[in-house]
Each structure stands twice: as C-alpha cells, then as structure tokens.
Design goal:
The protein is an alpha/beta fold. Helix content is 39%, strand content 22%. Strands 1, 2, 3, 4, 5, 6, 7, 8 and 9 form a 9-stranded mixed β-sheet that branches. Helix 5 packs antiparallel against helix 7 and helix 8 runs antiparallel to helix 9. The longest helix is centred in the C-terminal third of the chain and has 21 residues. 34% of the residues are buried.
Length: 261
C-alpha cells in the first residue's frame, strides 16, 4: 500500500472562512507527498459544503470525515483513525501552514530520524506578526517540568508532527479532557521517555482572535490541576501545591492581559 509521508489533520466546527484559509495553506505546500484530513465536529454548515463553495472539494488530497458535535479530543482521534500517512501533522482550523512547512519537517525528520517534532510559529494579531521562538530541552524530564510551569507553553500543538507508530504505541488523545487534550498527550509522551525535536523555523501562522479556546484561562485551571496531579515529576509534599500556585498566577496574569485587549 502506497501511503503519503504526511497526513495533515484539521479539526473544525463552524469556522468556514478560517477553515478555507487553512486548507488553502496546506494545499500550497511545496512538498507534495501528503493528504489532508478535515474532521467536521458537527458544524452547522457542513464542511463538505464549505469546501465545495470554495472550489476545494475536487482536490484528491482532501478527505472530509464527520461526527456529531462531540468534542475536540474525540474529533482528533477520528482524524487519527482516518489518517494513512507515516507522520501526522496537526493544524488548528484557525491557523495556516507556511508553503515550506512540510519540506522543513521532512528535512528534519530525515536528518534526525526523530519521531516527534514541535516548531516555532508566527503569532498574528491585528494585522502584525511576531515570531515565537520556542525553547529546546536536554531531556524529556526537563521539558515536562517546562510544560507544567512555564507561563507560555514551550510547544505549540498546531504544527506538531508525530510518527504514527509512536502515536499507536502511546495511544491517542484522552477523551476525558474537554480542554488541554493536546497538553495531556505531550505530557504522556514526555513521561514515557519521548524526546521531541525542535524545528527552529516558523511553519505555522497562529491568528489570535476572540474565539481562541486558550482565552478560557480560569475555567481551564481545573484541567491544569488534574494534569499536575497526573504528571508532576516528584511526589514530595508541597510540590504539587507549588506547581498549582505557579499555574494559577500564570493563568490569572494572562487572563488579565486579555481583558485589556
């Protein structure tokens, strides 16, 4: 069976214009050995209709699968089950891949033999872009602590690329997480000893807007506390409480910043 190198997977619900931009950005990639799987998580206007109106439905590389409005983790798992590529590349429906994204990913994976890549990105707000350089870590354990404690996550899930064999080994997304299913997957991988490679090149344009899920900062603290209980590296008394205090201060500060925008 001939399979593409990459499956780019987009999960969407009711973001027609943004989805069209995301799909076009994938199809514009210079590395052409890929398929695009779009998971429609119960959109009021079906994705098939949106893509047909944008004249994108005829591209053989694009496949659409649908489910009732169930949730992001379930939708991501449906995309994973549908994908046939060697590597799964995640793209949020309100983001765009750069035209050289898959070429850079392929070059790094071929050179390193890596199985998990996270990449720099460009944050776009009010028409201007800002390059976000992400840190590298000497070990999975250090990155795990960074994910739990840093105010800004040291990775972005959109653009993350994972070998399907590794995903099959560690399992898909935890469907008990209504938020932060991407963070849970990363923490689970790190705890199992996976050491992600960092691609020091921006391959995603992240558009900040009022619909970003990450703006639900304070409501998400319950999920952060659950992640800390599950994945904090040591069980010494007070460590979990200290991690939770750091995360509360961080999320509260970011929430206050969004109020001023």
């Amino acid at each position: 069976m001939v399979r593409p190198t990459f499956t780019v997977c987009i999960v969407v619900r009711d973001r027609a214009v943004l989805l069209v931009n995301a799909v076009r950005s994938v199809l514009a990639n210079t590395f052409e050995d890929f398929e695009l799987v779009v998971v429609d998580d119960g959109s009021r206007v079906p994705v098939t209709t949106v893509l047909a109106e944008a004249k994108l439905a005829g591209d053989h590389r694009v496949r659409v699968v649908s489910q009732p409005p169930t949730g992001i983790a379930e939708a991501r798992n449906l995309g994973l089950r549908t994908a046939t590529g060697r590597y799964l590349t995640v793209l949020d429906s309100d983001d765009e891949l750069t035209p050289d994204a898959l070429a850079h990913l392929h070059r790094l994976l071929s050179a390193t033999g890596g199985s998990w890549v996270y990449a720099d990105y460009t944050e776009v707000s009010r028409g201007s872009g800002r390059l976000i350089r992400l840190p590298e870590y000497a070990s999975p354990q250090r990155m795990l602590v960074g994910v739990l404690t840093r105010p800004r996550l040291p990775f972005k899930h959109s653009g993350t690329t994972i070998d399907r064999r590794l995903l099959d080994r560690i399992g898909g997304y935890d469907e008990s997480f209504r938020l932060f299913e991407d963070i849970e997957l990363m923490l689970r991988a790190l705890k199992s000893g996976v050491h992600p490679c960092h691609l020091a090149h921006p391959i995603v344009r992240f558009h900040r807007h009022d619909g970003n899920v990450t703006r639900g900062r304070l409501a998400g603290l319950v999920f952060w506390f659950r992640l800390i209980e599950m994945y904090r590296p040591v069980r010494w008394p007070g460590v979990g409480l200290a991690f939770k205090a750091l995360r509360t201060l961080s999320e509260t500060g970011k929430w206050l910043v969004t109020l001023g925008r």
